[in-house]
């Protein structure tokens, strides 16, 4: 495990320890959230804690089941006590870009309905402005991809269809859990994330975008230098 992985693990474990027995927990997608899921599973096995998980993707559900976390859906619960999820970028106002794993639509649903949303990242994910290193993912209905591409270009974005790179013999567009495609839209240095989030979601054919504005209650940052965890202030 390298320094970055240790930082991710520390943040994930710290978030999992915030969860009280009996809670319903939103289970995020990605490498850092995976450490939180593993820790929740350990607490069930070794401490006798009880949790119910609402996964944000098929991959999160598979991992949670592997670690013995009972799975529920939004049909089954009246509330989500806490959601734990990672991020691709975090600015100083706790606004996020998410979606490198293609699960941002379901993540936004689960995270926004949680009583508290805790973000877990390593320090490399902190930025002065969103968009400096990562594109904004758009989940788009397949038939709308050409039209949405043109509209995003008209408002100053550089757009690329997300495709598989040929690993394990798979080629072609990445398909989300909901059967849609992903456009990665670059807006270097986003000055007004809330305005852009609304503008992108207003485009017909866009299911959801990866800007998470005003949703995070707490951001836990794992340090790559010493493995400690700090709170983004």
What does this protein structure show overall?
With about 230 residues, this protein is α/β, with parallel strands linked by helices. It has 2 domains: about 5-125 and about 215-230, Rossmann fold, CATH 3.40.50; about 135-205, Alpha-Beta Plaits (2-Layer Sandwich), CATH 3.30.70. Helices cover about 30% and strands about 25% of the residues. It has 6 helices and 15 strands. The protein has helices spanning about 5-15, 30-45, 60-65, 105-115, 145-155, 195-200; strands spanning about 25, 50-55, 80-85, 90, 95, 115-120, 135-140, 160, 165, 170-175, 180-185, 205-210, 210, 220, 230. Strands 2-1-3-6-14-15 form a 6-stranded mixed beta sheet. Helix 1 (about 5-15) packs across helix 2. The model has no long low-confidence stretch (mean pLDDT about 95).
Please render the helix and strand layout as text.
Layout: H1 3-16, E1 24-27, H2 31-47, E2 52-55, H3 58-66, E3 80-85, E4 89-90, E5 96-97, H4 104-113, E6 114-122, E7 136-140, H5 145-154, E8 158-161, E9 163-165, E10 171-173, E11 181-186, H6 193-201, E12 206-209, E13 211-212, E14 218-222, E15 229-231
Parallel strand pairs: 1-2, 1-3, 3-6, 6-14
Antiparallel strand pairs: 4-5, 5-13, 7-11, 7-12, 8-11, 9-10, 14-15
Helix pairs in contact: 1-2
């Amino acid at each position: 495990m390298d320094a970055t992985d240790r930082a991710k693990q520390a943040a994930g474990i710290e978030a999992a320890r915030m969860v009280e027995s009996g809670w319903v927990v939103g289970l995020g997608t990605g490498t850092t959230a995976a450490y939180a899921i593993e820790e929740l599973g350990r607490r069930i096995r070794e401490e006798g804690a009880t949790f119910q998980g609402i996964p944000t993707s098929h991959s999160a559900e598979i991992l949670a089941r592997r670690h013995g976390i009972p799975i529920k859906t939004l049909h089954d619960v009246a509330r989500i006590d806490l959601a734990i999820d990672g991020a691709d970028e975090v600015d100083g106002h706790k606004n996020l870009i998410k979606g490198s794993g293609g699960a941002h639509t379901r993540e936004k649903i689960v995270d926004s309905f949680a009583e508290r949303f805790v973000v877990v990242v390593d320090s490399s994910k902190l930025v002065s402005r969103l968009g400096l290193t990562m594109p904004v993912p758009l989940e788009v209905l397949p038939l709308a991809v050409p039209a949405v591409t043109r509209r995003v270009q008209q408002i100053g974005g550089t757009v690329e269809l997300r495709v598989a790179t040929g690993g394990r013999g798979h080629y072609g567009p990445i398909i989300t859990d909901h059967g849609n495609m992903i456009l990665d839209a670059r807006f270097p240095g986003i000055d007004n994330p809330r305005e852009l989030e609304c503008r992108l979601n207003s485009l017909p054919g866009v299911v959801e975008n990866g800007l998470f504005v005003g949703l995070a209650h707490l951001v836990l940052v794992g340090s790559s230098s010493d493995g400690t965890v700090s709170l983004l202030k």
